[in-house]
Amino acid sequence: MIRFWRVFVQAVVFEAPGKINIKDIPEPQAGKEDILVKVKAAGLCGTDLHVYKGDFIASYPIVPGHEFSGEIISAGADVEGFKPGDRVCVDPCVYCGKCDFCKSDRENFCRDFRAYGLHFNGGFEELVSVSYRNAYQIGSLSFEEGSMIEPLSCVIHGIKRIGLRAGDEVLIFGCGPIGLMLMQVCKKSGASRVIMADVSRKKLETAERLGAGATLLNNNSFEAGLKKLFPFGADVVIDATGIPQVVQNMSAHVKDAGKLLFFGVCPPDSRISINPYEVYKRELTIYGTFSLLHDFPSAIKLLQSGSIDVRSLASHQFSLSEFMQGFNLMLEHGDFLKILIKP
């Protein structure tokens, strides 16, 4: 009698908004242009929380996880430049290549935008199949560093958006992993001073170790302390909290003719109040930034050169079966930095 055996892998599955299962699913199959990657490290991101809540672009059921790295275990017949054993990270963004945005080098606004971890199964599983066109060699970088290339790429895209100038003074709200990456990239991009603000003393201490020009605890003495550092405001103010009230108050801390960057992801139904006369009279420029845009090569080079430290940002590690421990830390807004899942 012939028996047909089906192979399964462990995965985290968002069945629907608000519903998570950790279960065995059929092993993914690699097509002719795909590589099968054994995931070694995958980062939990605030976007995963939005997907869980159902307020971000995603399909269900879905294996989340758009920040991941691993080792290739097999490659399709038409794959070029990759082979089993290669250490890779994955750009999660999948573009149609046909729409007006794709043809004008603004693929992050692709009219048929898709992504691993949102529309195709992502990195919170033991094995994942991805197009080789989305993979990048990480060489001797650790898998933990490799899993943080995606958020670092988003940071690079945001800083490119604002056209940071040599000598600019920068104020950043939020000392999570994104805020701390923003701080380091601003410094490498020519900022003369980067001041970090947060409600957590522990996170501010990490910012100090990573080279912040100064740190400010957001408490009753915050405004007075900020006034001493920036009597006329900062050239650039960046939000990395995604808290609408913080975003609303950013203009109070920026210099005339200054720039505001909305980096943190606020709830889609949130609203803030901005005085249009103030924007007009003070010639303020407001920037948004979404996702990334071919920034993986730059992020990899920065990590390989040792210019950016992301290893210090990994505060917790959990196995796939322990996923809910890490996810609950995010749900409870615990005192953490980057949470990594190690399948």
From TrEMBL:
Listed PANTHER family: L-THREONINE 3-DEHYDROGENASE
Pfam family, one: ADH_zinc_N
Stated family: Belongs to the zinc-containing alcohol dehydrogenase family.
SMART domains: PKS_ER
Entries under InterPro entries matching the protein: ADH-like_C (IPR013149), ADH-like_N (IPR013154), ADH_Zn_CS (IPR002328), ER (IPR020843), GroES-like_sf (IPR011032), NAD(P)-bd_dom_sf (IPR036291), Zn_alcohol_dh (IPR050129)
GO MF term set: oxidoreductase activity; zinc ion binding
Cofactor(s) this protein requires: Zn(2+)
Start and end residues of each Enoyl reductase (ER) domain: 15-341
Gene3D superfamilies in the cross-refs: Medium-chain alcohol dehydrogenases, catalytic domain, NAD(P)-binding Rossmann-like Domain
Taxonomic placement: Bacteria, Candidatus Desantisiibacteriota
Organism per entry: Candidatus Desantisbacteria bacterium CG_4_10_14_0_8_um_filter_48_22
Keywords: Metal-binding, Oxidoreductase, Zinc
Name of the protein in question: Enoyl reductase (ER) domain-containing protein
